[in-house]
Design brief:
Blueprint lengths: L1 H30 L10 H10 L1 H15 L1
Helix pairs in contact: 1-2, 2-3
């Protein structure tokens, strides 16, 4: 039971901090003149929650790949 709660809490913390990171990266890109950024939506929430920082890098990598 304790392990399950720990996994859920870990997912939620990664998801929240992932959304904060996406918001800050999008703000940085906008201030540098690049208006393109990853959207804050349920898919990015799940990706950052499940994968953490590599998930955020994956979201930006896929996003910029499709911009080429």
């Amino acid at each position: 039971m304790n392990n399950r709660i720990e996994k859920i809490l870990n997912f939620m913390l990664r998801a929240v901090f992932g959304m904060i990171a996406i918001f800050l990266i999008n703000s940085l890109l906008t201030s540098r003149g690049l208006g393109e950024g990853v959207g804050i939506n349920p898919l990015s929430l799940l990706t950052s929650g499940a994968l953490g920082l590599p998930g955020i890098a994956l979201l930006y990598g896929v996003h910029f790949y499709f911009l080429l």
